[in-house]
Amino acid sequence: MRRNLADVAVATAVASVVSGAPSTVHAVLTGRGVLDAARAAGTLAPGRRDRPGLIAGLAVHGVVSGFWGLVLGFVLPRRHTVWWGAVAGLAIAAISLPPGGRSRPALAALPQVPQWADNVAFGAVVGWILAQSERG
Containing domain of residue 73, as a range? Predict the structure, then answer.
């Protein structure tokens, strides 16, 4: 049985906002800029390799989150969805973070552990919301 696209969209939207909590908390505790990661994501937009920016970063984050949220909506199993979502978040980090971080200075400058934690949180939150929507 396929998941409802609206449920996947809601899970993705919520997760894309709240999953930044690990890196935001880390930034606050270490005195770094809380928007540094969002600005750095802007370097992934075409023509902005060396030009971080908040608006571009938010747009990139929305597109990337939308893509991965759709993937998770289709591949996460219906049992242990939160756990599998967290594992999927780890896989997303392994795929997404190293390639961009090595070639873009603004991304390379970010502490990596909080970025990985954000991805794990994203997957877990998508999984949790999908599990809640399936319970009715």
Answer: 5-135
Q: What's the whole-model pTM score?
A: 0.93
**Rounded CA separation 59/51 (Å):** 14
Q: What percent of the chain has pLDDT over 70?
A: 96
107 close to 43: Cβ distance less than 8 angstroms: yes
- By C-alpha distance, which of 25, 9, 1 is closest to 121? 25
Distance CA 108, CA 40 (A): 9
Contact 42, 84 (CB under 8 A): no
As given in the structure block, the two tokens for residue 102 are 């090595």
| Cα-based distances in Å from 49 to 52, 102, 119 | 8, 12, 22
Residues whose CB is less than 8 angstroms from the CB of residue 94 and which lie 6 or more positions away in sequence, other chains included:
none
Domain count for the chain, please give it.
1
Q: Which pLDDT tens digit goes with each residue over 32-90?
A: 999 999 999 999 999 998 899 999 999 999 999 999 999 999 999 999 999 999 999 99
